[in-house]
Model the fold of this input.
Amino acid sequence: MNTLRVIRKLLTALLCLAAWTVTSVTAQTLPDKSADQTLGVITCASSLCHGSVAPWAGSNVNQNEYVVWSRLDKHARAYSVLLNEKSKRITAKLSLPQPANQSKICLDCHAHNPVNSASEHHVSDGVACEACHGASERWIKTHTAPDADHAQNIANGMYPSDQPVARAKLCLGCHFGNTDKYVSHRIMAAGHPRLSFEMETFTNLQPAHFTVDADYVKRKGAVDGVKIWATGQALAVATQMEVLMDPKRGHDGAFPELTLFDCHACHHPMTDARWKPHTSFGGNLGPGLVRLNDSSMLMLQLILRQAAPASADSFKQAVAQLNQAVAGQGDMAGAVAALKAQAQAAATTIGAKGLSNEQLRLMALSLVDDGIAGGYADYAGAEQATMALGSVVNTMNQLGQVKSVAALNAGLANLRAGLKNDEAYKVPEFAARLSAFRTLVATPLSAGSTNR
Ligand code: HEC
Ligand code: HEC
Ligand code: HEC
Ligand code: HEC
Done:
């Protein structure tokens, strides 16, 4: 073989490897698509298993997970939502042939609606254990064995909900949608609430049925709130790109799927002439264009500036190119594929990187400063930035890097107050709230903060 051919072979192998890493980031099969059989919540609920009323002392896991879930977690009531008046109105407006609680289009997110299930499984149990932890056919017996470990459980079909990328794909599947299940603009126009999601915030909002203690860390590794946030943003961008290019989901008649764009680009009175140049990603979108919802792109750009400065510029360019393509200049499919690849690569980079305490603070500071500079031109961006600040500041607090928790909580509450009414959102008003917040993260707690 001559040298050229060897080099070519090597390059092909490298490219294949690169392609493999990119696809493998999201290759995990979601619980509802698993070929394994779902056995039903009744299998987990016994008082000797996960149905104890109080946590067990001396057990690895709390054992009261079922009680926490069934009494406190909204997921346990996700199915019953489909019986309420709002759902009836949605179904009637959409002229669905069946009521919401019998419609696959609703059940796919408001319940665990798997492709393979035992007769003991009922969709009426809502978003139950196996919706997140995977169909239990192969792991139910072995996961309680004295020598069972987490890797073995996963090999037996348990879903790796502890892994940030896998968890992002899981939660986003229902809280953003994917190419299988999606709250389209038609469903929203029929009355479905707008979806907004940030993985770290929502992980904390979900009534905790697990405790991250020394034993948890030993079995599953440390939990880093900022990584959970950052990975969630990277996967949100990748998923948005997937849906945008999906032949089935991405279009509706003459138009693209409108929920992928900024709601308020269209939904505001004509007398409210609010157009301003959008320059966050370089370039400038002229007036009268429908903008993509770029809230997660704004977050990911900011994350990369701290976590992987070398790729921040190419990410920014990829978004700028996509915006151009949406405006009719350039190849849409190419721009979407490029941005998706960048977002997936970012998820891998973020997973491998640690951030110093100082980088964490600088991230909080740029969340604030980007907004003061007018970077959150749309409500969705301000909403994501506020949830992001909550997550970053929460992590800083866990690391003992916060001067006054009370002051920060008051600052966050003031930001949230600015988001109460999406239709009344005004950039300068929100920027003023951010300016007030700025002093809380403007200076390091102590000189020479240590690396984590
Ligand atoms: C892609 C997943 C997805 C699909 C598909 C979906 N939903 Fe939802 N729905 C959600 C999520 C997530 C929420 C909660 C939003 C939040 O609080 O952040 C929700 C909230 C709701 C609510 C408001 C909750 C309440 O307490 O009143 C109603 C009503 C509802 N959905 C009905 C429906 C109906 C009817 C359908 C089918 C036509 C449907 N949904 C399809 C994910 C979905
Ligand atoms: C909406 C998703 C979701 C649902 C529904 C859910 N869980 Fe979890 N569960 C999680 C997440 C996220 C974690 C934390 C990450 C991890 O350890 O996998 C977790 C962790 C756990 C743990 C691990 C605790 C540890 O210390 O390792 C157990 C046990 C558990 N869940 C049991 C259950 C049971 C039983 C049910 C049903 C009654 C249930 N879960 C329903 C998402 C869910
Ligand atoms: C199978 C679909 C599905 C999956 C997977 C899922 N959720 Fe949900 N989630 C829902 C639905 C539907 C609701 C709304 C229920 C309601 O309104 O009663 C909801 C509600 C919530 C709420 C309550 C929100 C509120 O407004 O109070 C939180 C928090 C939440 N989910 C977090 C998560 C997290 C974190 C994950 C991933 C570990 C996750 N969910 C995975 C479908 C899902
Ligand atoms: C490209 C422009 C565009 C975008 C972007 C858009 N919409 Fe719409 N929306 C429309 C149009 C057009 C209608 C139909 C108005 C009518 O029937 O009078 C509509 C109708 C609606 C309605 C029903 C209002 C009514 O009067 O009954 C709701 C609710 C809605 N959209 C929510 C949303 C949400 C939430 C988003 C973002 C996730 C969004 N829209 C994004 C153009 C848009």
User: Anything to note?
Assistant: The radius of gyration is 23 Å. Strands lie at 251-252, 255-256. Confidence is low (pLDDT under 50) at residues 11-23, 447-452.
